[in-house]
Write a structure and sequence with these properties.
The protein has 64 residues and is of the alpha+beta class. The chain is 25% helix and 19% strand. The structure holds zinc ion.
Amino acid sequence: MSQELLRESDTDSDYDRCVSCGKITQAKRAEHINYRVGYIEGAGQLCFDCTQQVEGIAQPLPTI
Ligand SMILES: [Zn+2]
């Protein structure tokens, strides 16, 4: 199919950018936000570094 064409820009196009610093994150665009690490609803995706700086995000949210 079109795998050959997509491979070139894989890192740029398939992964979301950090809304804070603009770096490419580890979160795939195709991945549902519920399964992402560092995604802030209403804000967007954060990279690993920025996730560490945001209090509470790195820890699993308690489910009551
Ligand atoms: Zn960042």
